[in-house]
Design goal:
heterodimer; A: alpha/beta; Rossmann fold; Alpha-Beta Plaits; 2 domains; 6-stranded mixed β-sheet; 4-stranded antiparallel β-sheet; 11 helices; 14 strands; about 35% helix; B: mainly alpha; abc type-2 transporter like fold; 4-stranded mixed β-sheet; about 70% helix
């Protein structure tokens, strides 16, 4: 359905996107992961035709959209990272405004507004000003606006940032339902690995403007199939202990979420003996040690050297 | 599509109390305050005076006239010449003119209270009066002798002013200085063969009326500040519109609008038209309130609407121009500079705070054709009753400014593919 070929965007002092290749098949949900500044939002702006690329192409149904961006815009719904709504208008007025500028006819618009309000669960608050809404409600309406013109493809740029778990679940269920029931293609970016794991069939991982890994969840996890993840919980985390762990020759990655330390090491290496020895030397009390199969988070850490929410 | 963009803008302004306060409440309060505080300066109004004048009349006017008439009759003149001279004596009595024609006139009778006294009051008693006027004995006779027979000196009135009452005292001093000069003049007129009756009224008009240079309707202070403040605050609509437009970009609403296939120029036309409407409504509300509460009126309402519309279009041009800079620079610096620096300058140069005609010179010329000054000048003349053709220079200047702003905005506005 959509193909991105060697897409690049260079600004004066920065190469924001460097030769990105990706594709989306009709009806699938694809995750785009990357730490802050990885180039995800710029990639989304390039795909949605808001920004012209320096080089490369975006092809919709085998046709370039660079010269005719209207083609993708007609079938595309974008949920921006920010709340792109008028705070001084009601939910209904916002939907009507965006519906009208999408040239939806008046009678049809009322039907669509009602339908969208049902989907996002804001029917009973439709006459309230958006500025009176909670963060979760605003996020839901932000999604609702993108659904008004019944798009075939939705791009969601971190649609669950800064909201409560209940609203987050509601949004995830809504996205899943739209994908399953209406066969809408979704490109989803998030900081939450579990959201991507739950929603997406395939994943692209970006860092420093490049796609550094791509595939299904299983394929990505297999990157670390020869590795294992060791999670150590300590009573008091000491810098000295951490430094000694980092210096161990077989440790490929190390991340700290005080008081837990996660190490990525080859499966065949028995590192436990060293962990306890160093703990004894630095008088660090180990509370627990878990040996796990690497998760997507671990893969991300392995590939980027950073945690997803860094 | 443009209708939706405009409707949304109007709703947004209507629902923002802070903006409404800036655009409507503040100018109206300033009109009231400045109109009242600086009213007397602008209007040239005389302050309320309560002059108490004690008059000690020692002169016997009838006796003086009688003596002169007898002397005139004894002269070897023809009967016609004698009759003419006697009529001149009766019509040119300086003390009667002063007491009956000046102090009892419409202009002075409410502000000068005359009390006749037999003799000079004590110092303590004199403090109750703004001044004490003594008309010396033989004043009338001495005046006629000088005027008709060139004998004696010009007689003098004795005025003693209350020094603790400077304003009233000053007014009295001016009146009597002027009067003394006039009687000196009148006393030489008969000898020059001029009919003194023709000139005596000049004294009354000189001290009793404020003359206006033009024949048009004078504008009072409240009306002036209604114009000044309205023109100043109309520019805040432009700043406000540009600020709201930037919020749309910052929150990615602008991107969303472009994704609905709305061309960039259409988005800016929406800003332009909505700003025109908001400014036009703002002006009508402010001038409407000024009319209801302060009695500010327009001789020709159609002309007022024409000027208001043309100025509103210029404000729309400013809104689009500032928005284009904001969008291009991705910052609200242009709005901030415009609102906190440019508008006060426009207002000052234009004459929103003080009438620029009082400064005069080159500054006055610049002011007349500056964005604010042209607006103030056009409104001012229309309010005075000048026809629209008399403000064509100012309106042309506004139109040129508008076209320039729109052209610059078109050149600066972001192009397709530069949305973020």
């Amino acid at each position: 359905m959509l193909e991105v070929v060697e897409l690049s965007k260079h600004y004066k002092n920065k190469k924001a996107v460097k030769g990105v290749n990706l594709y989306l098949e009709k009806g699938e949900t694809v995750g785009l992961l990357g730490p802050n500044g990885a180039g995800k939002s710029t990639t989304i702006s390039l795909i949605s035709s808001l920004v012209n690329p320096t080089s490369g192409d975006v092809r919709l149904k085998n046709e370039s959209i660079l010269r005719n961006p209207e083609k993708i815009r007609n079938i595309l719904g974008v949920v921006p990272q920010d709340i792109a709504l008028y705070m001084d208008l009601t939910a209904k007025e916002n939907l009507e405004f965006f519906g009208r500028i999408h040239r939806i006819k008046k009678k049809e618009l009322q039907r669509r507004v009602d339908e969208v309000l049902d989907i996002i669960g804001l029917q009973d608050r439709k006459k309230d000003l958006v500025k009176t809404f909670s963060g979760g409600m605003k996020r839901r309406l932000n999604i609702g606006v993108a659904l008004l013109h019944e798009p075939e493809l939705i791009i969601m740029d971190e649609p669950t940032v800064g909201i409560d778990p209940q609203s987050r679940n509601y949004i995830l269920e809504t996205v899943k339902r739209l994908n399953v029931e209406k066969n809408i293609t979704v490109l989803y970016t998030s900081h939450y690995m579990e959201e991507v794991e739950y929603l997406c069939d395939r994943i692209y991982i970006m860092d420093h403007g490049e796609v550094i890994a791509a595939g299904t969840k299983e394929e990505i996890k297999s990157i670390l199939s020869a590795e294992q993840s060791i999670a150590i919980k300590v009573e008091i985390l000491k810098g000295e202990y951490l430094q000694l762990l980092q210096a161990l020759p077989n440790v490929k990655n190390i991340s700290v979420q005080d008081p837990a330390i996660t190490l990525i090491v080859p499966k065949k290496v028995n590192i436990l003996k060293d962990l306890f020895k160093l703990a004894e030397e630095t008088k660090t009390n180990i509370i627990s040690v878990h040996i796990e199969t690497p998760t997507l988070e671990d893969v991300f850490l392995h590939l980027t050297g950073r945690q997803l929410r860094d | 599509m443009i209708t939706q963009l405009i409707k949304k803008e109007l709703l947004m302004v209507w629902r923002r109390p802070r903006e409404l306060v800036i655009l409507l409440f503040m100018p109206f309060v300033l009109i009231t305050i400045l109109g009242a505080a600086l009213g007397s300066i602008i209007d040239g109004e005389a302050p309320d005076l309560n002059i108490k004048l004690a008059v000690i009349q020692k002169d016997d006017i009838a006796h003086g006239e009688e003596k002169i008439i007898k002397k005139m009759e004894s002269l070897p003149l023809s009967p016609e010449e004698k009759t003419g001279a006697i009529e001149g004596i009766k019509s040119l009595n300086p003390i009667r003119i002063l007491l009956e024609d000046v102090f009892a006139s419409e202009e002075f009778k409410e502000s000068i209270q005359v009390t006749e006294m037999e003799s000079m009051p004590s110092d303590k008693e004199a403090l109750k009066y703004s001044g004490v006027l003594e008309i010396p004995a033989g004043f009338t006779e001495q005046f006629y002798l000088h005027a008709f027979f060139n004998e004696e000196e010009v007689p003098k009135l004795n005025l003693k002013l209350n020094e603790s009452n400077t304003l009233e005292g000053g007014v009295l001093k001016d009146i009597f200085t002027s009067f003394q000069e006039d009687i000196s003049l009148w006393s030489v007129l008969p000898s020059m063969g001029i009919d003194p009756e023709k000139l005596q009224n000049s004294f009354i008009s000189k001290v009793g009326n404020t003359e206006t240079v033009t024949k048009t309707k004078p504008i009072n202070a409240v009306s002036y500040y209604a114009i000044g403040m309205c023109v100043m605050f109309m520019f805040y609509v432009a700043g406000n519109s540009a600020s709201m437009a930037l919020e749309e970009k910052e929150s990615q609403i602008y991107g969303r609008i472009l994704l609905a296939n709305v061309p960039v120029p259409i988005f800016f036309i929406g800003i332009f038209v909505s700003t025109i409407i908001i400014t036009f409504v703002q002006m009508n509300i402010l001038f409407g309130l000024s009319a209801l509460i302060h009695g500010v009126s327009w001789p020709n309402v159609i002309d007022y609407f024409v000027v208001t519309f043309i100025l509103s279009v210029m404000v729309g041009g400013f809104a689009v121009f500032i928005s284009a800079i904001n969008y291009r620079s991705n910052s609200r610096s242009a709005t901030q500079i415009f609102s906190s620096f440019f508008i006060p300058i426009i207002a000052f140069v234009g004459g929103s705070f003080i009438p620029v005609s009082q400064i005069g010179g080159f500054f006055e010329i610049i002011s007349q054709y500056s964005p604010g000054g042209a607006g103030i000048s056009a409104y001012y003349k229309i309010m005075q009753g000048f026809p629209l053709s008399d403000v064509s220079g100012q309106l042309l200047s506004v139109a040129i400014t508008t076209v320039l702003l729109l052209l610059l905005a078109f050149l600066i506005q972001p192009r397709r593919g530069e949305a973020i």
